[in-house]
């Protein structure tokens, strides 16, 4: 009897639990909070700005003297006199150095004496020829002797002149490498004269930039020695031949050099402005890439993001030139990584990052899509 009573109580407990479970579940459902709605991506938008872009070609060039020559000894001889100072200015025709001339002067004296004798003999024979005492053939022979004597004298003078080294143009002399009394060999350098009143600036540009350059275009250059000074000039020549190894062309510009501040051999940065224009621009962070394509996200009246393909151009200072969108378009400039095409967004109250107008000197071009 006791066992049957326990079994009855257990069955009653199970029935009670079974009846209570639906009620407990229903009560739990009534007390649960509703699911939260998904928040919209927060973005910042701006309209394209009209900006002033400058197309330019940049390069690095080497300064060269307007004219430069290394004066060498024409013969092996002893130096009798040096007539310039280290780095000093010399004028055209100024004597730079004088080589020994004793033998050449002696030869000149002998040649002059022979010339006088031959000329006098020719004069006497001419008088005799007028009186019929000398044949024309004899007179012609004496005339030839007189001319040869004159040529010998001219040769002796030239040999003396060759031993006087003069500056072919005005400029600055190099440092001296020899002294008076030195025996100098034929062809050995005596001095280098450099005319730096103007500077030839040689630089190379890639073949893709050749079409943008013109002879006479303005060039602006800077040297590390004068970081705050601009040196301006014009393009004087463009090499018609492209180097097949580097695929670049050599360009030469002429720069005035007031104060002779620029020195041959200096390294200069070169900038050539090839065009200017006003164009629409957006912050660089607003432009995304998909392979060769470039695009931005624009926002319509319903605050839905739309992927819009654009063509990019110059960029600098955090902004990039774009075409393919209206100036009135609202472009997402911040929060683009949280957005996809067709997604509704929430526009934040941050400050508009795009100014009305600005000036950008753009030196780099990104590939156009």
How would you describe the overall organization of this protein?
Among the domains are: 43-52 and 279-349, Beta Barrel (conserved putative lor/sdh protein from methanococcus maripaludis s2 fold); 58-66 and 195-277, Efflux pump adaptor protein, beta barrel domain (Elongation Factor Tu (Ef-tu), domain 3, Beta Barrel); 101-162, Helix Hairpins (Orthogonal Bundle), CATH 1.10.287. It has a six-stranded antiparallel barrel with strand order 2-9-12-11-10-13. A four-stranded antiparallel sheet has the order 6-5-3-8. Residues 1-7, 16-29 and 351-369 have low confidence and may be disordered. With 369 residues, the protein is an alpha+beta fold. The protein has four helices and 21 strands. A hairpin with a 5-residue loop joins strand 15 and strand 16 (305-316).
Q: What brief labels describe this structure?
A:
369 residues; conserved putative lor/sdh protein from methanococcus maripaludis s2 fold; Elongation Factor Tu (Ef-tu), domain 3; Helix Hairpins; four-stranded antiparallel beta sheet; 4 helices
């Amino acid at each position: 009897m006791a066992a049957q009573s326990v079994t009855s109580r257990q069955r009653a407990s199970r029935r009670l639990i079974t009846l209570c479970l639906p009620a407990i579940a229903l009560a739990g459902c009534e007390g649960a909070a509703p699911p939260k709605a998904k928040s919209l991506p927060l973005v910042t938008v701006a309209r394209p700005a009209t900006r002033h872009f400058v197309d330019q070609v940049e390069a690095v060039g080497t300064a060269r003297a307007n004219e430069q020559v290394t004066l060498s000894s024409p013969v092996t001889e002893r130096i009798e006199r040096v007539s310039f100072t280290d780095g000093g200015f010399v004028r055209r025709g100024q004597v730079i150095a004088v080589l020994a001339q004793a033998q050449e002067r002696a030869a000149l004296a002998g040649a002059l004496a022979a010339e006088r004798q031959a000329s006098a003999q020719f004069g006497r024979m001419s008088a005799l020829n007028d009186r019929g005492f000398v044949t024309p053939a004899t007179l012609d022979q004496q005339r030839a002797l007189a001319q040869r004597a004159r040529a010998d004298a001219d040769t002796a003078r030239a040999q003396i002149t060759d031993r006087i080294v003069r500056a072919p143009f005005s400029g600055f002399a190099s440092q001296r490498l020899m002294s008076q009394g030195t025996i100098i060999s034929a062809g050995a350098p005596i001095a280098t004269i450099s005319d730096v009143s103007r500077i030839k600036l040689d630089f190379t540009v890639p073949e893709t930039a050749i079409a943008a350059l013109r002879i006479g275009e303005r060039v602006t250059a800077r040297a590390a020695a004068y970081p705050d000074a601009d040196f301006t000039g014009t393009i004087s020549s463009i090499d018609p031949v492209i180097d097949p190894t580097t695929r670049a062309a050599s360009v030469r510009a002429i720069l005035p050099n007031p104060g002779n501040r620029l020195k041959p051999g200096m390294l200069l940065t070169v900038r050539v402005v090839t065009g200017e224009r006003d164009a629409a621009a957006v912050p660089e962070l607003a432009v995304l890439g998909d392979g060769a394509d470039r695009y931005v996200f624009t926002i319509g009246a319903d605050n839905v993001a739309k992927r819009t393909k654009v063509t990019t151009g110059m960029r600098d200072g955090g902004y990039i030139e774009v075409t393919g969108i209206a100036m009135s378009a609202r472009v997402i400039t911040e929060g683009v990584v949280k957005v996809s095409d067709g997604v509704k967004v929430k526009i934040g109250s941050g400050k508009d990052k795009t100014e009305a107008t600005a000036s950008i000197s753009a030196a780099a071009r990104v590939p156009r899509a």
